Amino acid sequence: MRFVVGRTEAGDRLDVVVARRTDLSRSAVGRRIADGLVLVDGMRAPKSHECAEGEPIEILDPVDVDVAPPPLPPVRYRDDDVAVIAKPAGLVVHPGAAHHRDTLVDALRAHGFPAVGSDPSRPGIVHRLDRDTSGLLLVGCSEAGYAGLVEQLASRSVERTYLALVAGHPPQRARVDGPIGRSPTDRTRFAIIPGGKPAVTTWERLETIDSPRAALLACRLETGRTHQIRVHASTAGHPVAGDARYGGGPLGRSLGLDRMFLHAARLGFRHPVTGEPMAFAEPLPADLAAVLDRLGVPPGDLVERL
What we know:
Distance between the termini: 43 Å
Structural class: alpha+beta
Strand content: 25-35%
CATH superfamily of the largest domain: Pseudouridine synthase
């Protein structure tokens, strides 16, 4: 990645500027600078370096090493044109600024999935799930399959339903229509902002929990923006349990969660080549099901209720 220091960044520390321009944390930026992977006008510089307007900054990738790809997650369906993958929590979908290896893309490549689509760094990937979100994900396996899935996502005809445990007792049903873009104050977060990309989430409350005060929601995406459910739920005053970035940390800690309670449970679409209606459901993984068990909510029939 390369960029030029802007006027408003002049005088700021190098590590602050790089962290602001990327998805990397300050500590991660500090490690890259110490490793000589951040260059100022082609030269190494300390993290305390005061940036000047117009200075070119280059962020280098860590040196590639030979590592085994992650195991292929469960494949719930696959043919010549499309696959449905059950992504586990903790697996990043594709390489990005803060994560270069051990992604779902690496697993797909290692297991012979074809490199289709316009972006070679994201072959076959038509949408994504956050690292700590589990559940169903679509992958294109041919150019026709990939293009057809992209078209359905653009026309909002793919049905995506998530299970989310949130703080408080939201309305039984709601529709949140709020455009989403990067937060102007924290580039690692997203927010509802004027001029953001259109984003619509609807939800239905499936279960109400009194202690701790929480609710289980079925959230349906009309659009698919980065962190959409997390941002909409937090803005409505009901952050996702375990989502420390958007206010769900306290509830998550009280429940012993190691990640946020968000799971892509149902997926419906038309086969991108044959047009056949297709629908898939994925039960809650064991860690989230155990949380509901402790709260007295039987997890067994939840997917059937969606």
